[in-house]
Amino acid sequence: MKDIMLVAVGGLFGAVCRFLIGRWSARHFSGSFPAATLMINFAGSFLIGFFLVWTTDRVMADPRWRLLIAIGFCGAFTTFSSYAFETFALFEKGAFGMAAWNLVSNNVAALAAVVLGAVIARIL
User: Fold this and answer.
1) pTM above 0.70, yes or no
2) Cβ neighbours of 88 (radius 10 Å)
3) What are the 10-residue block averages of pLDDT along the chain, 124 residues in total?
4) 5, 16, 32, 56: which has the fewest Cβ within 10 Å?
5) C-alpha torsion angle, residues 29, 101, 121, 79 (rounded to 10)
6) How many angstroms separate the Cα of 9 from the Cα of each of 46, 53, 81, 103, 124?
């Protein structure tokens, strides 16, 4: 039961952060490209890359931190399902260039963020 609570608490904070970034993004970017999803996927990918490498290679962390951060927070924070639907919606509207850009930028940015997080964790 404690493990479920850790995932739930992490998920609560991840979902709230996702909501706040989405709101902020809507005020600062045009609606033609899903910038919030890209920022969230990049940040979540960076965090999981950094956190999992740091807690595996650098510090001995209680495994419950993985439940809270990697599964709970990152699981609720990152938006792969939103990204997939937004790409589909762009494609369906005939915005093939934007759909392709969304597909490539999210995948490349997320992978780059994981690598960056892992490198920084190993430097520290």
Assistant:
1) yes
2) 12
3) 96 97 93 90 93 90 94 92 89 96 94 95 94
4) 32
5) 70
6) 20, 22, 21, 30, 27
